[in-house]
Design a protein that fits this description.
alpha+beta; elongated; 1 helix; about 90 residues; 3-stranded antiparallel sheet
């Protein structure tokens, strides 16, 4: 969930995407946003979402924790439920 929008915002992992980009001075930019899909990996080299949900910079020493977190997010993606009777 993110709080940068008005109030809290929850983004389902099926529709999320993330990237980790190296920056100057041993820093990384972590970006998580909407626009993901089950046919694409959760973590991608470059993403472009609409909401701009989470974007922050952190030390390169935290990279492995985020890679593990994003791998877990990938594992938690699920196929949509079948539509009920109509």
């Amino acid at each position: 969930m993110g709080s940068s929008l008005k109030g809290l915002f929850r983004l389902h992992v099926n529709f999320a995407q993330a990237s980790i980009t190296p920056k100057k001075h041993d820093m990384l930019e972590v970006y998580v946003d909407d626009g993901g899909a089950l046919d694409r990996p959760f973590q991608q080299e470059k993403i472009q979402g609409v909401w701009g949900v989470w974007r922050f910079v952190l030390p390169v020493t935290d990279e492995s924790a985020f890679v593990d977190f994003f791998a877990e997010a990938e594992r938690r993606r699920t196929a949509p439920r079948a539509a009920g009777p109509q």
